Amino acid sequence: MIALIQRVLRAEVTVPAPDGPPGHHGPARECAGRIGPGMLVMVCAEPADTDVQAVKLVDKLLKLRVFADMAGKMNRSVQDIGGGLLIVSQFTLAADTSGGNRPSFAGAAPPAQGRMLYDTVVQLARSRHPSVEQGRFGADMQVELVNDGPVTLPLVVR
């Protein structure tokens, strides 16, 4: 699995509202997930991934020390600070941009497998952490965030 982790002061993901009237700038949107201080986690499953990688990813997310301690050192985890996790599916993390100008997404898991593994990551995180929000798999999502630091970390779990 591939993840992109951003330490945030706040983050929110919106999706098209199912029955809402169009707004001034297109279809109405609704909030799917919102957190205060914590981590925005973009997640992409790859074809060889299984529940094993999902467990490893959640283990790493919960223990990753990216928040400052009293001395200003990145020495605290999202669990230590009681922060939120906003987990959003993003198959484009598997993009291959080595040939031509159009990315290939052949490195991403097929949609059914990607959805299953994304759901597994969210369920595992919720079973172990009190503040977990999520995007909507396969939706046209818009993500707003205030990156803290900025701290942005790639993470690949095999």
How do the strands and helices of this protein lay out in sequence?
Blueprint (H helix, E strand, L loop, with lengths): L1 E15 L12 E7 L2 E7 L6 H13 L3 E2 L5 E3 L1 H4 L2 E6 L21 H18 L3 E3 L7 E15 L2
Parallel strand pairs: 3-6, 6-7
Antiparallel strand pairs: 1-2, 1-3, 1-8, 4-5
Polypeptide structure, described:
With 158 residues, the chain is an alpha/beta fold. The longest helix is centred in the C-terminal third of the chain and has 18 residues, at 111-128. It is globular, with a radius of gyration of 16 Å. It contains three helices and eight strands, in the order βββαββαβαββ. Strands 1, 2, 3, 6, 7 and 8 form a six-stranded mixed beta sheet that branches. Strands 4-5 form a two-stranded antiparallel ribbon. It has one domain: D-tyrosyl-trna(Tyr) Deacylase, Chain: A (3-Layer(bba) Sandwich). The model has no long low-confidence stretch (mean pLDDT 95). Helix 3 links the parallel strand 6 (84-89) and strand 7 (132-134).
For the record, the count of structural domains works out to: 1
What is the count of β-strands? 8
Radius of gyration: 16 Å
Shape: globular
Order of helices and strands: EEEHEEHEHEE
Name the CATH superfamily assignment. D-tyrosyl-tRNA(Tyr) deacylase
Class derived from helix and strand content? alpha/beta
Could you name the key traits of this structure?
single chain; alpha/beta; D-tyrosyl-trna(Tyr) Deacylase, Chain: A; two-stranded antiparallel sheet; six-stranded mixed sheet; 8 strands; 158 residues
